[in-house]
Amino acid sequence: MSNISPVDLHTYPQPDTLASRPFAVNYIHYGTGLPVVMVHGLAASLHDWDFLIPQLVSSGYAAYALDLLGHGDSYKPSALSEYTIERVFEHMEAWLHSLNLSRAPVLIGHSLGGYLALLHALRFPHRTRALILVNPFYSPHQLSPILQLIFRRPLLNTTLIERTPYWLFRALVDISSLRLSIGSAYHHTLPESVRIQTARDYKRAAPGIFNLPRTMRDLTPDLPRVAAPTLVLWGDNDQTLAPVSFSRLLQAMPNAHGEAHPSCGHIPHQCHALWFNRRVLNFLASL
Q1: 132 φ, ψ (degrees, to nearest 5)
Q2: pLDDT digit string, tens, across residues 188-223
Q3: How is the chain classified by DSSP, letter by letter?
Q4: Residue 199 to residue 254: CA distance in whole angstroms
Q5: Is the CB of residue 43 less than 8 Å from the CB of residue 111?
Q6: Which CATH number applies to 9-286: 3.30.70.580, 3.30.1340.30, 3.30.360.10, 3.40.50.1820?
Q7: How far, in Å, are 81, 100, 256, 270 from residue 210 at the CA level?
Q8: What is the reported pTM?
C-alpha cells in the first residue's frame, strides 16, 4: 500500500479548465518543463494521478491530466451513440491541440487511457515524446472469456447502471481491494482515500461509457509500429486484464521495457505509488 498522501490541490494554483464551455474538457495543469499528459482509465477521473502529480511538478515537469469524455467533470453526451472510442479520442485530441504545447509530450495512460495513448502514438508519432503504459488495454483478448462475451453484445439500456447507489459501488471497490495477508488476516491494497474516490468516479461517470469497450479494435497488429520509447508498468494480480498480456506487449513493441509489481492488481499507480512514481521519474530522467 502507498504511504504517501495524494496531492492537496489547495496548495497549488487554481487549475486550468474548460468546464464552462460546450463539449467541455475538465483538466488540471501544474508546473513547467517537459509536458507529461496523464490519461485515466474507464470510469475513473484525473484524480487517478493525485499521487504522481506533486512528484512530477517538484521534479521539473509540466503535469497535465484530464477527465475523458463522459467522465469526471467533463462533457457527458446524453446519446449512447456518442460513446465510441473514436469520439473519446477526438475529444482528447482536440484538448491536446488546444494546449499549444511547444514540445511533444510524454503520455501516461492507464487501461483505457493506455489504449488512447497508443492510438495517439500510432497516428501522431511526431507528437509523441514517449509513452508510459499502466496495465494498458490494447486487445479484447486481454479480457476473460465472460467479459469478451458481454462486450460482444450492444449496450441498449443503462437504467440499471444509473440506479446503482454509491454505497454499492463503494462496497464492490472495498471487496476488490481486500487481500489475504500472512497470518490469515485481510488488508486493503488501496488507501481509503483512493477507494472513496474510485466509487465516486464510478457513480458520477455517464453510463454510456460502458459502451466504449465494444467499439475498440484490436491494436496488436499495430504495436510493432510504435517507435516511441515506452515504459510498461503493471500489477501481476490484475483481475481485469490478463497479466501475461503485458509481457506480450513488451515483445511486440520495438522500444519498450517494463516491470510488474507482484502484489498489485489493476491500478499499481494507486496501490504502490512510491514504487510506481520512482520508476516513472527514472524513465523520464532517461529521456
Answers
A1: -125, 110
A2: 577 777 788 888 888 889 999 999 999 999 999 999
A3: ---SPPP-GGGSPPPP--TTSTT---EEEE--SEEEEEE--TT--GGGGTTTHHHHHHTTEEEEEEPPTTSTTS---SSGGG-SHHHHHHHHHHHHHHT--SSPPEEEEETHHHHHHHHHHHH-GGG-SEEEEES----GGGS-HHHHHHHHS-----HHHHH--HHHHHHHHHHHHEEE-TTS-EEESS-HHHHHHHHHHHHHS-GGGGGGGGGPPP-GGGGGG--S-EEEEEETT-SSS-THHHHHHHHHSTTEEEEEETT--S-HHHHSHHHHHHHHHHHHHH-
A4: 37
A5: no
A6: 3.40.50.1820
A7: 12, 31, 30, 22
A8: 0.87
Domain boundaries, the chain: 9-286
- Give pLDDT tens digits for 79-97: 888 999 999 999 999 999 9
Q: Which set of grid coordinates corresponds to residue 220?
A: 496488436
